[in-house]
Amino acid sequence: MFLQVIVAFSWELISCQPQNPFAPPPPPPFRPPPPPFRPPPPPFRPPPPLFPPPPPPFQPPPPPLRPPPPFSPAAPPPPWIGISDPNLLNYLSRLQTSVSPEYAFNYFCGRFPAHDGCRQQQRWQPQAQQPVPTNLQPIIATTTMPPIPRIQIADSLQGVPSELKSQLKHFAFQMLDEKDKRNILKACSGKVKCLEQSETATKKRAAVKHYEIALNKMIQPNALDVERSVELRHLRTQQVKQAMLRRAGIGDKVIAANDGTFQDDILLTEHQSNWILNEISALDGRRKRDSLFFENAPTQKWPTGEPIKYYFDPSLNSDDQEVVKRALRSIERNTCIKFELVAERPHSKYIHYIKNPDPAFCGLSFIGRVEPVNPIYLSFLCVDLIGVTVHETMHALGINHQQLRADRDEYVSVQWDNINPQLYDYFAIADTSQFTSYGIAYDYYSIMHYSPFVGGVDADKPTLVPKMQPERFMKVNKSNILKFILRFTSEIMIRLLNSLYQIIGQRKGLSDRDVELLRVMYCNPGCEDKIVYCGIWTLKGLCNARNPGSWMKRNCRRSCGFC
């Protein structure tokens, strides 16, 4: 037992040497390094399918990239040198930036050449002078457009009593007498470059063509050659104007203003132009004249008994729309004609009001109903906006300008010595085969009458002078209040204030005879004239004449008021 205890204690040696408290600790026992890092095994992936998936459906390739449209060139700085008139500057400042200030200035001075700021302007000069054809045939032969089609016109004078035939003469497309020719051609040696196109006409044509192409592409997106169709109509219109100059005897010395319009604010369809050209050819003896029948004429009325639909283009704001609505209400209040505003654009037979903020015109319209749509372009830049809208809507209803009636020369004297020869179509009597007065007398108060200063070489002198009471119908208000205002007002404002009191060319509203004409045309269905000349015979007092009276009662019931 004792031995075992000694043995047990002998295993651990006991040192009697003193311990050093500052001695470093003994090194730790040796440990093997950890095993190297191994990444985890990849996730489980299912085996590939036995059959590959079907291919994705076919998708057409994306359209090729198109370059962005070029930026519009900056408008040239306005040539306002020497102009300090605030009214003129305010007028020009209202124009959109898309309108060239130089063009706006030229147009303004074309209407008001006596303005102090316009007297020093340099006239636009073309680089070359174009040869002038002496008759219609070279115009057709030198163009790529199709020839003028021949239109067969029924004989409406067959069976007409001789007493009535003797009362007719061809008023339209007349030859000017030698004195009038000398007077109108005086301008060609002075202010008017009669064998050149003015910049005003060129710019106006470009603006009209631009808006017509845009409208046609909108209403007929699948139509082909829209540009060519519009260009053909403009070329036909120019042919009509040039042919009228030739008939007047001055076509070899004057080129008509090629501005895309007829009589300044009318657009002609291709068929209407072809009709007029056929009429002129008949007068020239190039084809047999069959006479005329109104029901076959290209100027068409709207159907009666149903409202006329109209649509606002998105270009019209709420104020513009209210102007149009007020104009249409003035027609509805006085006649049986009704208009219906539609929210969606119909396919055909409607009036499409479009805003065209171009200073070249106040309004444009076709005359009579046309297919597929009757556009009415309004600039909303002129005074008497409601009256301008009524005037253009009356064109769409089929009513022409008052001063172009067959009996015009009995009431108005044309001052040929102050007429711009390039604007001869403003003063040429309308074709009596297309338009009838329905026996309504000439009206100085008509909203369809032109201003007595329209189309003049000298804007301070009249071009149309009434033969009855000219002082009354062309008067300018001479009140003391107006005289006081005019002392502090520019010339442009003088003209504007004068227009407020001028009777001929007024755009304030429908006259009594305007209303009567609309009622006769649209408010008595079933009461018709069989001959377009009934209006002429009615005004000559032949409705109850002894010999042709019974014939008139059968064939001129509308104009004579027999129904």
Automatic annotation (TrEMBL):
Gene3D superfamilies: 1.10.10.1940, Collagenase (Catalytic Domain). Its cofactor is Zn(2+). The keyword Protease applies. Residues 21-77 have a biased composition (Pro residues). Binds 1 zinc ion per subunit. Zn(2+) binds at H391, H395, H401. One of its GO terms (molecular function) is metalloendopeptidase activity. Keywords: Disulfide bond, Hydrolase, Metal-binding, Metalloprotease, Protease, Signal, Zinc, Zymogen. It is an enzyme of class 3 (hydrolase). Residues 20-77 are annotated as: Disordered. CDD domains: ZnMc_astacin_like. Residues 527-563 form the ShKT domain. It comes from the Eukaryota. GO terms for biological process: proteolysis. The keyword Hydrolase applies. The active site is at E392. Residues 296-524 form the Peptidase M12A domain. Its EC number is 3.4.24.-. Residues 1-18 form the signal peptide. Metalloprotease. This is Metalloendopeptidase.
